[in-house]
Specification:
alpha+beta, 3 domains, 13 helices, 15 strands
Protein backbone atom coordinates (compact mmCIF):
# COMPACT_ATOMS: atom_id res chain seq x y z
CA UNK A 1 0.00 0.00 0.00
CA UNK A 2 2.74 2.48 0.99
CA UNK A 3 4.83 1.46 -2.02
CA UNK A 4 1.93 2.23 -4.36
CA UNK A 5 1.39 5.59 -2.65
CA UNK A 6 5.03 6.58 -3.07
CA UNK A 7 5.04 5.38 -6.66
CA UNK A 8 1.99 7.56 -7.31
CA UNK A 9 3.71 10.62 -5.82
CA UNK A 10 6.93 10.05 -7.76
CA UNK A 11 5.13 9.37 -11.02
CA UNK A 12 3.19 12.60 -10.57
CA UNK A 13 6.19 14.85 -9.88
CA UNK A 14 9.07 13.09 -11.66
CA UNK A 15 6.84 12.45 -14.65
CA UNK A 16 6.59 16.21 -15.15
CA UNK A 17 10.39 16.51 -15.15
CA UNK A 18 11.92 13.38 -16.70
CA UNK A 19 11.35 12.16 -20.24
CA UNK A 20 10.66 8.45 -20.67
CA UNK A 21 10.52 7.53 -16.99
CA UNK A 22 10.58 3.71 -16.72
CA UNK A 23 7.62 2.85 -14.51
CA UNK A 24 8.71 -0.77 -14.01
CA UNK A 25 12.24 0.15 -12.89
CA UNK A 26 10.79 2.82 -10.64
CA UNK A 27 8.41 0.30 -9.04
CA UNK A 28 11.20 -2.26 -8.41
CA UNK A 29 13.48 0.40 -6.91
CA UNK A 30 10.73 1.70 -4.63
CA UNK A 31 10.05 -1.79 -3.24
CA UNK A 32 13.76 -2.17 -2.50
CA UNK A 33 13.94 1.26 -0.88
CA UNK A 34 16.65 2.47 -3.25
CA UNK A 35 15.82 4.09 -6.60
CA UNK A 36 18.70 5.04 -8.91
CA UNK A 37 18.04 6.55 -12.34
CA UNK A 38 21.06 7.49 -14.47
CA UNK A 39 21.66 9.38 -17.70
CA UNK A 40 18.11 10.50 -18.48
CA UNK A 41 16.86 13.69 -20.12
CA UNK A 42 14.39 16.38 -19.13
CA UNK A 43 11.04 16.78 -20.87
CA UNK A 44 11.39 19.21 -23.81
CA UNK A 45 8.16 21.02 -22.83
CA UNK A 46 9.40 21.90 -19.33
CA UNK A 47 9.52 25.65 -20.17
CA UNK A 48 6.13 25.74 -21.84
CA UNK A 49 4.36 27.27 -18.85
CA UNK A 50 6.85 30.13 -18.38
CA UNK A 51 5.58 32.31 -21.24
CA UNK A 52 9.08 32.77 -22.66
CA UNK A 53 10.31 32.47 -26.27
CA UNK A 54 12.86 29.74 -25.47
CA UNK A 55 13.25 26.05 -26.21
CA UNK A 56 15.39 23.21 -24.86
CA UNK A 57 18.40 22.30 -27.01
CA UNK A 58 19.95 19.71 -24.69
CA UNK A 59 19.29 18.25 -21.25
CA UNK A 60 20.79 15.55 -19.07
CA UNK A 61 20.48 14.28 -15.51
CA UNK A 62 23.56 12.24 -14.64
CA UNK A 63 22.05 10.62 -11.57
CA UNK A 64 18.80 10.66 -9.65
CA UNK A 65 18.95 8.76 -6.35
CA UNK A 66 16.06 8.11 -3.97
CA UNK A 67 16.47 6.56 -0.50
CA UNK A 68 13.24 5.33 1.14
CA UNK A 69 13.35 4.30 4.86
CA UNK A 70 10.49 1.78 4.70
CA UNK A 71 10.90 0.69 8.32
CA UNK A 72 10.52 4.29 9.57
CA UNK A 73 8.55 6.02 6.84
CA UNK A 74 6.36 7.94 9.31
CA UNK A 75 9.35 9.21 11.29
CA UNK A 76 12.30 9.44 8.83
CA UNK A 77 12.57 11.55 5.65
CA UNK A 78 12.92 10.37 2.08
CA UNK A 79 16.21 11.61 0.57
CA UNK A 80 16.48 12.68 -3.06
CA UNK A 81 19.78 13.42 -4.82
CA UNK A 82 20.07 15.02 -8.25
CA UNK A 83 23.60 15.15 -9.66
CA UNK A 84 24.99 16.57 -12.91
CA UNK A 85 21.86 18.39 -14.10
CA UNK A 86 22.68 20.07 -17.42
CA UNK A 87 20.40 22.16 -19.66
CA UNK A 88 21.11 24.21 -22.77
CA UNK A 89 18.43 26.71 -23.78
CA UNK A 90 18.18 28.59 -27.06
CA UNK A 91 15.92 31.45 -28.21
CA UNK A 92 12.86 30.39 -30.17
CA UNK A 93 12.55 31.88 -33.69
CA UNK A 94 9.74 34.39 -34.04
CA UNK A 95 7.96 32.10 -36.52
CA UNK A 96 7.63 29.49 -33.74
CA UNK A 97 6.26 31.79 -31.05
CA UNK A 98 3.24 30.32 -29.26
CA UNK A 99 0.96 32.97 -27.78
CA UNK A 100 -0.98 30.82 -25.30
CA UNK A 101 -0.93 32.81 -22.06
CA UNK A 102 0.44 30.04 -19.85
CA UNK A 103 1.37 32.46 -17.05
CA UNK A 104 -2.27 33.15 -16.26
CA UNK A 105 -3.12 29.49 -16.84
CA UNK A 106 -0.44 28.29 -14.40
CA UNK A 107 -1.43 30.84 -11.78
CA UNK A 108 -5.11 29.90 -11.96
CA UNK A 109 -4.33 26.18 -11.80
CA UNK A 110 -2.12 26.79 -8.77
CA UNK A 111 -5.00 28.50 -6.97
CA UNK A 112 -7.47 25.81 -8.06
CA UNK A 113 -5.20 22.99 -6.82
CA UNK A 114 -4.68 24.84 -3.55
CA UNK A 115 -8.46 25.16 -3.16
CA UNK A 116 -8.92 21.41 -3.84
CA UNK A 117 -6.36 20.57 -1.17
CA UNK A 118 -8.03 22.81 1.39
CA UNK A 119 -11.47 21.40 0.63
CA UNK A 120 -10.23 17.86 1.22
CA UNK A 121 -8.31 18.85 4.36
CA UNK A 122 -11.43 20.55 5.73
CA UNK A 123 -13.51 17.47 5.05
CA UNK A 124 -10.99 15.14 6.72
CA UNK A 125 -10.69 17.46 9.69
CA UNK A 126 -14.45 17.47 10.23
CA UNK A 127 -14.67 13.74 9.64
CA UNK A 128 -12.10 13.14 12.35
CA UNK A 129 -14.03 15.29 14.83
CA UNK A 130 -17.34 13.60 14.04
CA UNK A 131 -16.05 10.05 13.54
CA UNK A 132 -18.35 8.68 16.21
CA UNK A 133 -21.34 9.90 14.21
CA UNK A 134 -20.21 8.26 10.98
CA UNK A 135 -22.34 5.34 9.67
CA UNK A 136 -19.05 3.48 9.10
CA UNK A 137 -17.61 4.24 12.54
CA UNK A 138 -16.09 1.19 14.14
CA UNK A 139 -16.57 -0.88 10.99
CA UNK A 140 -13.34 -0.11 9.11
CA UNK A 141 -10.40 2.28 9.32
CA UNK A 142 -10.51 5.36 7.17
CA UNK A 143 -7.84 4.26 4.71
CA UNK A 144 -8.44 7.21 2.43
CA UNK A 145 -7.84 9.68 5.25
CA UNK A 146 -4.82 7.77 6.50
CA UNK A 147 -3.21 7.69 3.07
CA UNK A 148 -3.78 11.41 2.62
CA UNK A 149 -2.08 12.07 5.96
CA UNK A 150 0.82 9.80 5.09
CA UNK A 151 1.20 11.57 1.76
CA UNK A 152 1.43 14.91 3.58
CA UNK A 153 4.06 13.53 5.98
CA UNK A 154 6.16 12.28 3.07
CA UNK A 155 5.92 15.57 1.12
CA UNK A 156 6.60 17.72 4.21
CA UNK A 157 9.85 15.89 5.02
CA UNK A 158 11.47 15.11 1.69
CA UNK A 159 15.14 16.13 1.75
CA UNK A 160 16.54 17.29 -1.59
CA UNK A 161 20.15 17.75 -2.61
CA UNK A 162 21.22 19.10 -6.01
CA UNK A 163 24.88 18.97 -7.01
CA UNK A 164 26.72 20.10 -10.14
CA UNK A 165 23.94 22.02 -11.87
CA UNK A 166 24.55 23.99 -15.08
CA UNK A 167 21.91 25.97 -17.00
CA UNK A 168 23.31 27.54 -20.19
CA UNK A 169 21.75 29.92 -22.74
CA UNK A 170 23.26 29.99 -26.25
CA UNK A 171 22.45 32.62 -28.87
CA UNK A 172 23.88 31.78 -32.28
CA UNK A 173 21.98 34.70 -33.80
CA UNK A 174 18.24 35.47 -33.67
CA UNK A 175 16.65 36.06 -37.05
CA UNK A 176 15.33 39.62 -37.21
CA UNK A 177 16.98 40.61 -33.92
CA UNK A 178 20.54 41.76 -34.75
CA UNK A 179 21.45 38.33 -36.08
CA UNK A 180 25.20 38.98 -36.04
CA UNK A 181 25.24 39.28 -32.22
CA UNK A 182 26.31 35.96 -30.70
CA UNK A 183 26.87 35.18 -27.04
CA UNK A 184 26.34 32.62 -24.33
CA UNK A 185 25.65 32.91 -20.64
CA UNK A 186 24.88 30.48 -17.88
CA UNK A 187 24.16 29.73 -14.24
CA UNK A 188 26.20 27.11 -12.42
CA UNK A 189 25.62 25.68 -8.97
CA UNK A 190 27.93 23.58 -6.84
CA UNK A 191 25.32 22.43 -4.31
CA UNK A 192 21.80 23.12 -3.09
CA UNK A 193 20.27 21.44 -0.01
CA UNK A 194 16.63 21.66 1.13
CA UNK A 195 15.37 20.08 4.35
CA UNK A 196 12.78 20.47 7.12
CA UNK A 197 13.83 22.07 10.42
CA UNK A 198 12.56 22.96 13.87
CA UNK A 199 12.00 26.54 15.04
CA UNK A 200 15.76 26.90 15.71
CA UNK A 201 16.55 25.81 12.13
CA UNK A 202 18.04 22.42 12.98
CA UNK A 203 17.11 19.34 10.93
CA UNK A 204 14.01 17.59 12.24
CA UNK A 205 11.05 15.41 11.25
CA UNK A 206 7.74 17.24 11.08
CA UNK A 207 4.29 15.64 11.32
CA UNK A 208 1.51 18.21 11.01
CA UNK A 209 -1.02 15.59 12.23
CA UNK A 210 0.52 15.31 15.71
CA UNK A 211 -1.36 17.33 18.38
CA UNK A 212 1.85 19.11 19.46
CA UNK A 213 2.27 20.45 15.89
CA UNK A 214 -1.35 21.50 15.44
CA UNK A 215 -0.59 25.22 15.71
CA UNK A 216 3.02 25.08 14.50
CA UNK A 217 4.08 26.09 10.99
CA UNK A 218 6.47 24.05 8.87
CA UNK A 219 10.04 25.34 8.53
CA UNK A 220 12.29 24.70 5.54
CA UNK A 221 15.95 25.62 5.17
CA UNK A 222 17.70 26.06 1.86
CA UNK A 223 21.51 26.20 1.70
CA UNK A 224 22.93 27.56 -1.56
CA UNK A 225 26.64 26.94 -2.24
CA UNK A 226 28.67 28.60 -5.00
CA UNK A 227 26.00 29.94 -7.32
CA UNK A 228 27.78 31.59 -10.26
CA UNK A 229 26.60 33.54 -13.33
CA UNK A 230 28.88 33.95 -16.33
CA UNK A 231 28.60 35.71 -19.68
CA UNK A 232 30.70 35.10 -22.82
CA UNK A 233 30.59 38.00 -25.26
CA UNK A 234 31.10 37.41 -28.98
CA UNK A 235 30.83 33.67 -28.45
CA UNK A 236 32.42 31.53 -31.15
CA UNK A 237 32.21 28.06 -29.56
CA UNK A 238 28.73 26.59 -29.18
CA UNK A 239 28.54 23.18 -27.54
CA UNK A 240 27.86 20.13 -29.67
CA UNK A 241 26.57 16.69 -28.65
CA UNK A 242 29.94 14.95 -28.34
CA UNK A 243 31.44 17.65 -26.12
CA UNK A 244 28.46 18.95 -24.14
CA UNK A 245 28.77 16.85 -20.96
CA UNK A 246 32.52 17.44 -20.43
CA UNK A 247 32.33 21.12 -21.34
CA UNK A 248 29.41 21.86 -19.02
CA UNK A 249 31.11 19.98 -16.18
CA UNK A 250 34.29 22.04 -16.60
CA UNK A 251 32.32 25.28 -16.52
CA UNK A 252 30.84 24.60 -13.08
CA UNK A 253 32.40 26.82 -10.43
CA UNK A 254 33.03 25.16 -7.05
CA UNK A 255 34.87 26.08 -3.88
CA UNK A 256 37.75 23.98 -5.20
CA UNK A 257 40.07 25.03 -8.02
CA UNK A 258 37.87 25.61 -11.06
CA UNK A 259 38.46 25.13 -14.77
CA UNK A 260 36.10 28.01 -15.51
CA UNK A 261 37.60 30.11 -18.33
CA UNK A 262 34.58 32.35 -18.84
CA UNK A 263 33.97 35.86 -17.55
CA UNK A 264 32.09 35.70 -14.29
CA UNK A 265 29.43 38.29 -13.51
CA UNK A 266 28.29 37.13 -10.09
CA UNK A 267 29.19 34.52 -7.48
CA UNK A 268 27.45 33.99 -4.16
CA UNK A 269 26.38 31.57 -1.44
CA UNK A 270 23.29 32.02 0.71
CA UNK A 271 20.97 30.62 3.37
CA UNK A 272 17.23 30.88 2.76
CA UNK A 273 14.60 30.12 5.41
CA UNK A 274 10.92 29.42 4.70
CA UNK A 275 8.05 29.30 7.20
CA UNK A 276 4.81 27.89 5.79
CA UNK A 277 1.45 27.86 7.49
CA UNK A 278 -0.07 24.35 7.44
CA UNK A 279 -3.30 24.74 9.41
CA UNK A 280 -6.04 27.20 10.39
CA UNK A 281 -6.19 28.79 6.94
CA UNK A 282 -9.43 30.48 7.93
CA UNK A 283 -7.61 32.30 10.77
CA UNK A 284 -5.61 35.17 9.33
CA UNK A 285 -3.23 35.85 12.22
CA UNK A 286 0.09 35.09 10.49
CA UNK A 287 1.39 35.00 6.90
CA UNK A 288 0.91 31.86 4.86
CA UNK A 289 4.50 32.18 3.63
CA UNK A 290 7.49 33.84 5.27
CA UNK A 291 10.86 33.86 3.48
CA UNK A 292 14.14 35.07 4.95
CA UNK A 293 17.24 35.45 2.70
CA UNK A 294 20.72 36.19 4.05
CA UNK A 295 23.79 37.10 1.98
CA UNK A 296 27.23 37.97 3.30
CA UNK A 297 28.89 39.31 0.12
CA UNK A 298 27.63 39.98 -3.41
CA UNK A 299 30.00 41.36 -6.05
CA UNK A 300 28.75 42.01 -9.60
CA UNK A 301 30.96 42.81 -12.61
CA UNK A 302 29.69 44.14 -15.96
CA UNK A 303 31.82 44.86 -19.03
CA UNK A 304 30.33 47.16 -21.70
CA UNK A 305 30.13 44.49 -24.46
CA UNK A 306 28.06 42.36 -22.07
CA UNK A 307 25.67 45.25 -21.43
CA UNK A 308 25.06 45.64 -25.18
CA UNK A 309 24.21 41.95 -25.43
CA UNK A 310 22.05 41.99 -22.30
CA UNK A 311 20.03 44.89 -23.72
CA UNK A 312 19.69 42.92 -26.94
CA UNK A 313 18.34 39.90 -25.00
CA UNK A 314 15.92 42.05 -22.98
CA UNK A 315 14.67 43.66 -26.19
CA UNK A 316 13.99 40.18 -27.62
CA UNK A 317 11.98 39.11 -24.56
CA UNK A 318 10.17 42.44 -24.45
CA UNK A 319 8.93 41.92 -28.00
CA UNK A 320 7.47 38.59 -26.97
CA UNK A 321 5.79 40.09 -23.90
CA UNK A 322 4.21 42.81 -26.04
CA UNK A 323 2.63 40.05 -28.12
CA UNK A 324 1.26 38.46 -24.93
CA UNK A 325 -0.20 41.81 -23.84
CA UNK A 326 -1.99 42.11 -27.17
CA UNK A 327 -3.34 38.59 -26.65
CA UNK A 328 -4.79 39.53 -23.26
CA UNK A 329 -6.44 42.63 -24.71
CA UNK A 330 -8.13 40.54 -27.38
CA UNK A 331 -9.93 38.27 -24.89
CA UNK A 332 -13.68 38.84 -25.31
CA UNK A 333 -16.34 39.06 -22.62
CA UNK A 334 -18.00 35.71 -21.86
CA UNK A 335 -21.75 35.58 -22.47
CA UNK A 336 -24.18 33.92 -20.04
CA UNK A 337 -24.81 31.17 -22.58
CA UNK A 338 -21.07 30.45 -22.90
CA UNK A 339 -20.68 30.58 -19.13
CA UNK A 340 -23.38 27.94 -18.69
CA UNK A 341 -21.72 25.71 -21.25
CA UNK A 342 -18.31 26.30 -19.64
CA UNK A 343 -19.70 25.23 -16.27
CA UNK A 344 -21.00 21.95 -17.64
CA UNK A 345 -17.82 21.17 -19.60
CA UNK A 346 -15.52 22.15 -16.74
CA UNK A 347 -17.29 19.88 -14.24
CA UNK A 348 -17.07 16.89 -16.62
CA UNK A 349 -13.39 17.44 -17.45
CA UNK A 350 -12.28 18.32 -13.92
CA UNK A 351 -14.05 15.22 -12.58
CA UNK A 352 -12.01 13.15 -15.05
CA UNK A 353 -8.80 14.78 -13.83
CA UNK A 354 -9.60 14.22 -10.15
CA UNK A 355 -10.59 10.59 -10.76
CA UNK A 356 -7.28 9.77 -12.46
CA UNK A 357 -4.20 8.50 -10.66
CA UNK A 358 -1.88 11.32 -11.78
CA UNK A 359 -4.51 14.07 -11.40
CA UNK A 360 -3.12 16.31 -14.16
CA UNK A 361 -3.95 17.32 -17.72
CA UNK A 362 -2.07 14.38 -19.21
CA UNK A 363 -5.17 12.17 -18.75
CA UNK A 364 -7.16 14.34 -21.17
CA UNK A 365 -7.45 13.98 -24.90
CA UNK A 366 -6.05 16.82 -27.01
CA UNK A 367 -9.54 18.28 -27.57
CA UNK A 368 -10.42 18.02 -23.86
CA UNK A 369 -7.14 19.64 -22.88
CA UNK A 370 -7.64 22.57 -25.26
CA UNK A 371 -11.25 23.04 -24.09
CA UNK A 372 -10.14 22.99 -20.45
CA UNK A 373 -7.42 25.61 -21.12
CA UNK A 374 -9.90 27.81 -23.00
CA UNK A 375 -12.33 27.70 -20.05
CA UNK A 376 -9.62 28.48 -17.49
CA UNK A 377 -8.36 31.39 -19.58
CA UNK A 378 -11.77 32.95 -20.26
CA UNK A 379 -13.47 32.56 -16.86
CA UNK A 380 -12.62 34.32 -13.59
CA UNK A 381 -11.66 32.45 -10.44
CA UNK A 382 -14.83 33.67 -8.78
CA UNK A 383 -16.76 31.68 -11.38
CA UNK A 384 -14.47 28.62 -11.45
CA UNK A 385 -13.99 27.88 -7.73
CA UNK A 386 -17.65 27.01 -7.02
CA UNK A 387 -17.48 24.56 -9.94
CA UNK A 388 -14.35 23.04 -8.39
CA UNK A 389 -16.16 22.55 -5.11
CA UNK A 390 -19.04 20.75 -6.83
CA UNK A 391 -16.59 18.24 -8.32
CA UNK A 392 -14.72 17.66 -5.05
CA UNK A 393 -18.01 17.39 -3.16
CA UNK A 394 -19.29 14.64 -5.47
CA UNK A 395 -15.93 12.89 -5.64
CA UNK A 396 -15.60 12.65 -1.85
CA UNK A 397 -19.21 11.51 -1.57
CA UNK A 398 -18.56 8.75 -4.10
CA UNK A 399 -15.47 7.64 -2.19
CA UNK A 400 -17.45 7.48 1.04
CA UNK A 401 -20.15 5.29 -0.57
CA UNK A 402 -17.49 2.96 -2.01
CA UNK A 403 -15.82 2.69 1.40
CA UNK A 404 -19.13 1.87 3.09
CA UNK A 405 -20.08 -0.83 0.56
CA UNK A 406 -16.63 -2.43 0.89
CA UNK A 407 -17.23 -2.59 4.63
CA UNK A 408 -20.60 -4.34 4.11
CA UNK A 409 -18.97 -6.91 1.81
CA UNK A 410 -16.32 -7.69 4.42
CA UNK A 411 -19.03 -8.13 7.06
CA UNK A 412 -21.01 -10.41 4.73
CA UNK A 413 -17.97 -12.58 4.10
CA UNK A 414 -17.58 -13.02 7.83
CA UNK A 415 -21.21 -14.08 8.29
CA UNK A 416 -22.65 -17.64 7.97
CA UNK A 417 -23.86 -16.91 4.44
CA UNK A 418 -20.40 -15.77 3.49
CA UNK A 419 -18.90 -18.81 5.26
CA UNK A 420 -21.06 -21.21 3.24
CA UNK A 421 -20.17 -19.53 -0.02
CA UNK A 422 -23.02 -17.02 -0.23
CA UNK A 423 -22.51 -14.37 -2.92
CA UNK A 424 -21.46 -10.88 -1.83
CA UNK A 425 -21.11 -9.24 -5.21
CA UNK A 426 -24.43 -7.42 -5.15
CA UNK A 427 -24.28 -5.98 -1.65
CA UNK A 428 -25.10 -2.27 -1.74
CA UNK A 429 -26.17 0.35 0.73
CA UNK A 430 -29.88 0.34 1.52
CA UNK A 431 -32.03 3.42 0.95
CA UNK A 432 -31.95 4.24 4.68
CA UNK A 433 -28.15 3.87 4.74
CA UNK A 434 -27.83 6.06 1.64
CA UNK A 435 -29.90 8.78 3.30
CA UNK A 436 -27.78 8.49 6.45
CA UNK A 437 -24.57 8.65 4.44
CA UNK A 438 -25.86 11.62 2.45
CA UNK A 439 -26.75 13.47 5.65
CA UNK A 440 -23.41 12.64 7.23
CA UNK A 441 -21.49 13.75 4.16
CA UNK A 442 -23.34 17.05 3.83
CA UNK A 443 -22.64 17.75 7.50
CA UNK A 444 -18.91 17.15 7.05
CA UNK A 445 -18.66 19.03 3.78
CA UNK A 446 -20.70 22.12 4.50
CA UNK A 447 -20.09 25.50 2.88
CA UNK A 448 -18.47 27.20 5.85
CA UNK A 449 -14.82 28.17 6.14
CA UNK A 450 -13.61 26.89 2.77
CA UNK A 451 -11.25 29.74 1.98
CA UNK A 452 -9.39 30.09 -1.30
CA UNK A 453 -6.18 32.03 -1.72
CA UNK A 454 -8.15 34.11 -4.19
CA UNK A 455 -10.59 35.19 -1.45
CA UNK A 456 -8.27 36.40 1.33
CA UNK A 457 -9.30 39.43 3.42
CA UNK A 458 -8.02 42.69 1.97
CA UNK A 459 -6.06 43.60 5.12
CA UNK A 460 -4.38 40.18 5.52
CA UNK A 461 -0.61 40.02 4.84
CA UNK A 462 -0.30 36.53 3.42
CA UNK A 463 3.24 36.77 1.98
CA UNK A 464 6.31 38.17 3.70
CA UNK A 465 9.90 38.30 2.41
CA UNK A 466 12.96 39.72 4.19
CA UNK A 467 16.33 40.11 2.48
CA UNK A 468 19.63 41.12 4.10
CA UNK A 469 23.03 41.75 2.50
CA UNK A 470 26.10 42.63 4.57
CA UNK A 471 28.16 44.17 1.78
CA UNK A 472 28.57 44.22 -1.97
CA UNK A 473 29.94 46.02 -5.00
CA UNK A 474 28.69 46.65 -8.54
CA UNK A 475 31.50 47.36 -10.99
CA UNK A 476 30.98 48.75 -14.50
CA UNK A 477 34.15 48.34 -16.53
CA UNK A 478 35.34 49.30 -20.01
CA UNK A 479 38.65 49.63 -21.82
CA UNK A 480 40.17 53.01 -22.68
CA UNK A 481 41.97 54.03 -25.87
CA UNK A 482 45.36 52.90 -24.55
CA UNK A 483 44.16 49.57 -23.13
CA UNK A 484 43.68 50.82 -19.57
CA UNK A 485 40.72 49.54 -17.54
CA UNK A 486 38.24 52.30 -16.72
CA UNK A 487 35.53 51.57 -14.23
CA UNK A 488 32.85 52.85 -11.91
CA UNK A 489 32.31 51.11 -8.57
CA UNK A 490 29.10 51.28 -6.55
CA UNK A 491 29.84 50.02 -3.02
CA UNK A 492 27.09 49.29 -0.49
CA UNK A 493 26.87 47.93 3.05
CA UNK A 494 24.06 46.62 5.28
CA UNK A 495 21.28 46.43 2.72
CA UNK A 496 17.79 45.35 3.83
CA UNK A 497 14.67 44.78 1.76
CA UNK A 498 11.20 43.86 3.05
CA UNK A 499 8.33 42.78 0.82
CA UNK A 500 4.72 42.36 1.96
CA UNK A 501 1.67 41.21 -0.03
CA UNK A 502 -1.81 41.85 1.30
CA UNK A 503 -5.09 40.69 -0.19
CA UNK A 504 -4.83 40.28 -3.95
CA UNK A 505 -3.60 43.73 -4.98
CA UNK A 506 -1.65 45.45 -2.24
CA UNK A 507 2.15 45.24 -2.41
CA UNK A 508 4.67 47.02 -0.18
CA UNK A 509 8.43 47.01 -0.69
CA UNK A 510 10.71 48.85 1.72
CA UNK A 511 14.41 49.23 1.02
CA UNK A 512 17.24 50.51 3.23
CA UNK A 513 20.95 51.05 2.46
CA UNK A 514 23.07 52.08 5.41
CA UNK A 515 26.27 52.93 3.48
CA UNK A 516 26.69 53.75 -0.22
CA UNK A 517 29.69 55.07 -2.15
CA UNK A 518 30.53 55.72 -5.83
CA UNK A 519 34.18 55.64 -6.95
CA UNK A 520 35.80 56.11 -10.36
CA UNK A 521 38.72 53.71 -10.78
CA UNK A 522 41.47 53.30 -13.37
CA UNK A 523 44.04 50.54 -13.77
CA UNK A 524 46.76 50.99 -16.37
CA UNK A 525 48.03 48.13 -18.49
CA UNK A 526 50.45 45.94 -16.57
CA UNK A 527 49.61 47.50 -13.18
CA UNK A 528 47.93 45.65 -10.30
CA UNK A 529 46.81 48.63 -8.20
CA UNK A 530 43.86 50.85 -9.03
CA UNK A 531 43.79 54.64 -8.98
CA UNK A 532 40.60 55.61 -7.14
CA UNK A 533 38.69 58.88 -7.20
CA UNK A 534 35.73 59.35 -4.81
CA UNK A 535 32.57 60.72 -6.41
CA UNK A 536 29.76 60.16 -3.90
CA UNK A 537 30.32 59.75 -0.18
CA UNK A 538 28.83 60.45 3.23
CA UNK A 539 28.80 64.04 4.50
CA UNK A 540 30.60 63.38 7.79
CA UNK A 541 29.92 66.89 9.08
CA UNK A 542 26.10 66.82 8.87
CA UNK A 543 24.99 63.19 8.62
CA UNK A 544 24.49 61.20 11.82
CA UNK A 545 26.57 58.06 12.35
CA UNK A 546 23.55 55.74 12.54
CA UNK A 547 21.64 57.43 9.70
CA UNK A 548 20.95 55.33 6.60
CA UNK A 549 22.08 56.55 3.20
CA UNK A 550 18.67 55.79 1.71
CA UNK A 551 15.22 54.65 2.85
CA UNK A 552 12.74 53.86 0.13
CA UNK A 553 9.17 52.63 0.41
CA UNK A 554 7.05 51.54 -2.54
CA UNK A 555 3.33 50.74 -2.26
CA UNK A 556 1.03 49.45 -4.97
CA UNK A 557 -2.64 50.26 -4.35
CA UNK A 558 -1.84 51.95 -1.01
CA UNK A 559 -4.37 52.55 1.76
CA UNK A 560 -4.81 55.65 3.86
CA UNK A 561 -6.71 58.88 3.88
CA UNK A 562 -6.72 60.99 0.74
CA UNK A 563 -6.97 64.81 0.82
CA UNK A 564 -10.24 66.29 -0.33
CA UNK A 565 -10.69 66.64 -4.11
CA UNK A 566 -7.95 64.03 -4.78
CA UNK A 567 -8.24 60.41 -5.88
CA UNK A 568 -6.63 57.36 -4.31
CA UNK A 569 -3.24 56.77 -6.00
CA UNK A 570 -2.40 53.43 -7.65
CA UNK A 571 1.19 53.63 -6.43
CA UNK A 572 3.08 55.57 -3.81
CA UNK A 573 6.86 55.94 -3.50
CA UNK A 574 8.67 57.69 -0.66
CA UNK A 575 12.42 58.38 -0.54
CA UNK A 576 14.43 59.62 2.43
CA UNK A 577 18.16 60.27 2.01
CA UNK A 578 20.80 61.47 4.42
CA UNK A 579 23.17 64.37 3.75
CA UNK A 580 25.60 63.26 1.05
CA UNK A 581 28.72 64.85 -0.50
CA UNK A 582 29.41 64.71 -4.25
CA UNK A 583 32.85 65.55 -5.69
CA UNK A 584 32.33 66.60 -9.30
CA UNK A 585 34.44 64.67 -11.85
CA UNK A 586 33.68 65.37 -15.52
CA UNK A 587 35.87 62.50 -16.78
CA UNK A 588 34.13 60.04 -14.50
CA UNK A 589 30.66 61.26 -15.50
CA UNK A 590 31.56 60.93 -19.19
CA UNK A 591 32.82 57.41 -18.46
CA UNK A 592 29.49 56.51 -16.85
CA UNK A 593 27.42 57.97 -19.70
CA UNK A 594 29.56 56.23 -22.32
CA UNK A 595 29.11 52.86 -20.60
CA UNK A 596 25.32 53.02 -21.02
CA UNK A 597 25.47 54.31 -24.58
CA UNK A 598 24.25 51.13 -26.34
CA UNK A 599 22.47 50.48 -29.62
CA UNK A 600 19.04 48.89 -30.02
CA UNK A 601 18.05 46.86 -33.08
CA UNK A 602 14.36 47.34 -32.26
CA UNK A 603 12.61 50.23 -30.59
CA UNK A 604 10.32 47.95 -28.54
CA UNK A 605 12.30 48.25 -25.32
CA UNK A 606 12.93 51.98 -25.70
CA UNK A 607 9.30 52.72 -26.62
CA UNK A 608 8.05 50.64 -23.70
CA UNK A 609 10.40 52.43 -21.29
CA UNK A 610 9.42 55.91 -22.52
CA UNK A 611 5.74 54.98 -22.40
CA UNK A 612 6.12 53.89 -18.78
CA UNK A 613 7.98 57.10 -17.92
CA UNK A 614 5.30 59.24 -19.56
CA UNK A 615 2.51 57.32 -17.81
CA UNK A 616 4.20 57.74 -14.45
CA UNK A 617 4.94 61.40 -15.09
CA UNK A 618 1.32 62.15 -16.08
CA UNK A 619 -0.09 60.36 -13.04
CA UNK A 620 2.47 61.39 -10.43
CA UNK A 621 2.33 64.03 -7.77
CA UNK A 622 5.66 64.84 -6.08
CA UNK A 623 5.87 66.06 -2.50
CA UNK A 624 9.16 67.47 -1.18
CA UNK A 625 9.57 67.17 2.59
CA UNK A 626 12.18 69.10 4.60
Amino acid sequence: MFESLLEQILQKYLGKLILGLNSQNLKVGIWRGNVVIENVSIRPDIFQGLNLPISLKFSSIGKLSLQVPWSNLSSSPIEILLDRVYLIIVPKPQADWDFVDFTTMEKKMEIINDYVRRCIEKFLEKEKKNLIESPTAGKSPNNQGYLEKLKLIIMDNIQVKLTNVHLRFENEGIEGFHQEIKYSWGVTLDKLEIFTTDKDWHKTFYDRNEPKNKDKPMNKKLILSSLSIYWNSKEEVFLKDQQIIDSMTNLIKTNKESNNKTTEILSLSSIIKLVQKTSHYEIFDSPEFQIDIELAIMNILFMKPKLQEIIHLIDFFQSYQQAIIQLRKSVSIVSEEDKSRHRKDFILIFEKIQSSQCQNLEVLSQDEKQLFIDIIMSETLEEILPWVKIVIHEFQKKQKFIEFEKTKKKQAKGSFSGWWGGATEGIEASNEEKVELESYFEKNFSNDNLTSTALRPKDYIWFQLDFRLEEGCLTLRNFGKNGEEEGVKFRFENVEMKLRKRGERYLQVSFEIMEFYIDFVTRFYGETNEIKSNFLMKNEIIARKDEAFLNMKFERFPDGEVPENEIQPDMRVSLISRSTKIRYNSIGIYRLIDFFNVKLEHETLKDSAWQQIENINDATKVLYLP
